[in-house]
Design goal:
Rossmann fold; alpha/beta; 10 helices
Amino acid sequence: MAEQTRTAKATTGELTTPESEANFLDLRQVNVARGDRVVLQDVNLQIRAGEHVAILGPNGCGKSTLILTINCQIYPIVQPGMRVRIFGRDRWDVTQLRKHFGVVGSDLPGERTAVTTGLDAVIAGFFSASTLWPNLIVTVEMRERAAEALERIEATHLSNQLVGTMSAGEKRRIVIARALVHRPRQLLLDEPSNALDLAAQRELRQTMRRLANEGTGLVLVTHHLGDILPEIDRIILMRDGRIVGDGPRAELLTEARLSELFRTPVRIGRDEEWLHSW
């Protein structure tokens, strides 16, 4: 009976093992090829569930490929010792995986999104769709969760506004709300402040801080020091497809380490809890 219960829970995507409670991500000896080039090399990375982490590196260092690997959109080279384990499991139905962690990119999907209201665009996140097509069955719970997600990020005023009339910062809030509809335990944010003006960047960072303080784990992928929230204490440095540093922010966010990472002189300024560079 116990074995049948474990099997049934695995089928529905429910997390059952002690390891799944401890770790969001466990990558070991991961190598990923894109075409003829190996772009991730011998990546070993463990992230606890609920942990706040920033992955920092220059353009072309492999951050985007790492995101696609975590998101199960691409797969590593199969070799002895290789492991990709998410929430304690080696295999996932991707639709079930979306219920446990959300991915926040820079864009909304599809041309129909522009003529969709903010609330409907968030509801469409349940289906990974650009709009609520006639064949999609929307439940009362979905509508409630979408409204809840907008409220969590203080964006209920966008519910009835067409996405096409929104500013870049407002659209980014809709992207985040779409990722939150499943109430995920972990969010993966890919260069979230790109294309945002200073006011929108400030609003975005306040939103991320609220989510972090509510208990949602954040994995932030960026090359901007200003995106790294005070709540993020662990920094992972990437260059040339490898992890070259992993540790506390006080040790890794220094002028010497970042100058070496970006291969250019870097100066760091501090404004209370925040860092900026030039």
